[in-house]
Amino acid sequence: MEHILRELKQYWPHFENADIAKAYHDELEKFETWIKEVGLKLLALRAKEAAEKGNPVARDYPEEYIKGLIRRGQAKILVNMFAAYLVSKGKATQYWLIKNKFVAGGESIATWIRLLKKIYTPNSSAV
After folding, report:
1. Structure confidence at residue 10 (pLDDT)
2. Angle between helix 62-73 and helix 40-52 axes, rounded to 10 deg
3. What is the DSSP string of 88-113?
4. What is the top-level taxon of the source organism (predicted)?
5. Weakly modelled stretches of the chain, pLDDT under 70
6. Residue 75, SS3?
7. Among 11, 29, 75, 94, which is most exposed with the fewest C-beta within 10 angstroms?
8. In sequence order, which residues have a C-beta less than 8 Å from that of residue 22 and are 6 or more positions away?
9. Is residue 91 within 8 Å of residue 79, measured between CB atoms?
């Protein structure tokens, strides 16, 4: 998963310029640690779900699927993961982040929050 972290790091400077990162600057260091501990599990779970839905790349090459997901989303993937991180830590609500235009819409952040719930729920079939 070291390749995945390198791929994410490539977009970190763009992410730091996002409004949400500027507003919650004090959380960036904690978020970076969180990505290594939880974020990678989220990405793996995202690949697992895509594989279960029939995506052959996600099934046969999950790491490549994740790297492609990151390349397509670029800094936006970090913004949405950061928003989910903030919600999970009680720093903001999904509604507040959308209302104040820190994230583009509810669907993208909702996906990450849903996956987080799978990780944090005991007896779930998470990664």
Report:
1. 94
2. 110
3. HTTSS-HHHHHHTTSSS-HHHHHHHH
4. Archaea
5. 106, 122-127
6. helix
7. 29
8. 16
9. no
CB-count burial class (<10 Å; 0-12, 13-18, 19+) for 37: exposed
- Domain ranges (residues) in the chain: 2-120
> Rounded to whole angstroms, how far apart are CA atoms 62 and 46?
9
DSSP-based helix, strand, coil % in the chain, nearest 5 = 80, 0, 20
Whether the CB-CB separation of 102 and 20 falls below 8 Å is answered with yes
Cα angle 118, 122, 127 (rounded to 5 degrees) comes to 50
How far is Cα 23 from Cα 20, in angstroms, rounded to an integer? 5
Query: In this structure, what are the phi and psi dihedrals at residue 91, rounded to the nearest 5 degrees?
Result: -80, -25
Per the listing, tokens 């978020």 go with 31
